[in-house]
Amino acid sequence: MQRLNADKVPAFGNSHGWYTSSIAKILGNRAVLGEFQLHRLVGNKRVPVGDPVPNYFPPIIDESLFYKAKTSRKQRLNGNHPRGGRRGKNFPNIFSGIARCAYCNGPMRHEDKGAMGRSTYLVCSNARRGRKDICTEKTSWLYPEFETSFLAFVSELDLASIMSSDANARLRADLQDEITVLEAKRSSIADKQAAAFELLQTSNIEFVGRQLTDLQTQHQELVATIKQKAEELASFTSNASAYHEMKDLIAELQSKEGDAYKLRAEVASKLKSLISTLYIAPVGSRPLITKAKEIVGDEDPEDFDQVIRFLLEMPVDAHGRYFSVKFKDGNLRVVAPNPTNPLDYDSQVSTADLEHGTMPINIEEFHALLEDQ
């Protein structure tokens, strides 16, 4: 918006310059792809009539860019509102908006107690604000150490494909872009399905029924394609050179020089596209056990059975700090880093370990279990 106004690019109609709302409407309108959608008023609400007409206008961008922009805008939302612009000099917190407290499900707050470096921490926002009724665990996790451990052990991020220019890395990055676009299309179809269900109350049932059938077919085809692309992506292995070993990649990302902001912003965007929830437990699982006993109680074994089973199957030391990642594809990864070396770990499990009888920690499921009691 500021660039358009600074360059004096003419706005549409009688507007005095560009506004975020008008830009958002343009970016979200499929007319930029050349489509025309007829609408009619139902009460005070505009509803689409019939299918969109392709190639009605000259397209100004391709479909891939449209969905990538849509996904990027969605990732920058704070609830239903846009976040602010540039975040600090070097994008200090790549986990903004996804890091949660394992003990209360509240947001983890990024605190800077001095110059950027070993004085930045992640701590539970509820506990930090003194909300003892929600969370009392004020123990923080040194941010540089947490970030290093996360980047070192969460291989699903594929850091090399973001930071490396080798051919194999670029192919992986291109595949990930394809998956991002397909996921955005799937989300768009899901929104259309929800809108079609609403129209059942006011529109021709036969027409809406055909729309729902078509949308369901498209949805199923997209799910199958996403699965195929994900398997293709997983089949790639990094051929990164010695320079691009993980330790060097992390050091480069944490550098304050060059394109540090751009690289960190790309990593943050990739994390939001991959991760459903990231739970951080700075003092291990002991507070979870205490919370479970307080909420459920241990007088009735039948009511307590699910929670106890969950706690007993935790594959980490009750006193050792860890983090748990749930990905949007349903997979899980739990890592307990070594307390003295963030590039080493004491234990690590993932969904793949289910085949070997180990149960990853799904903290989201744990909180749901407590709420059901």
Please write out the topology.
Layout (H helix, E strand, L loop, with lengths): L1 H5 L13 H9 L10 E4 L2 E4 L14 H13 L1 E2 L2 E2 L16 E3 L6 E5 L7 E5 H4 L12 E2 H11 L5 H5 L3 H33 L5 H31 L10 H8 L6 H15 E7 L4 H11 L4 H12 L9 E6 L4 E6 L7 E6 L12 H10 L1
Parallel strand pairs: 5-9
Antiparallel strand pairs: 1-2, 3-4, 6-7, 7-8, 9-10, 10-11, 11-12
SSE sequence, one letter per element = HHEEHEEEEEHEHHHHHHEHHEEEH
Strand pairing plus helix content: what structural class? alpha+beta
Question: Helix proportion of residues, in percent?
Answer: 40-55%
Question: What is the number of E strands?
Answer: 12
Total discrete domains:
3
What is the strand content? 5-15%
Mean pLDDT: 78
Mind describing the biggest β-sheet? 5 strands, mixed
Low-confidence stretches: 237-244
Terminal CA distance reads: 49 Å
Instruction: Give the overall shape.
Output: globular
Order of strands side by side in the largest beta sheet?
5-9-10-11-12
Question: What's the tally of helices?
Answer: 13
CA radius of gyration is 24 Å
Structure explained in plain terms:
The protein is of the alpha+beta class. It has 3 domains: 2-61, no CATH class; 99-156 and 253-372, no CATH class; 165-239. Helix content is 45%, strand content 14%. The chain is built from 13 helices and 12 strands. It has helices at 2-6, 20-28, 63-75, 125-128, 143-153, 159-163, 167-199, 205-235, 246-253, 260-274, 286-296, 301-312, 363-372; strands at 39-42, 45-48, 77-78, 81-82, 99-101, 108-112, 120-124, 141-142, 275-281, 322-327, 332-337, 345-350. A 5-stranded mixed β-sheet has the order 5-9-10-11-12. Strands 6-7-8 form a 3-stranded antiparallel β-sheet. The longest helix is centred in the middle third of the chain and has 33 residues, at 167-199. The protein is globular and about 60 Å long. It starts with a helix and ends with a helix. The relative contact order is 0.10. The model is unreliable at 237-244 (pLDDT under 50).
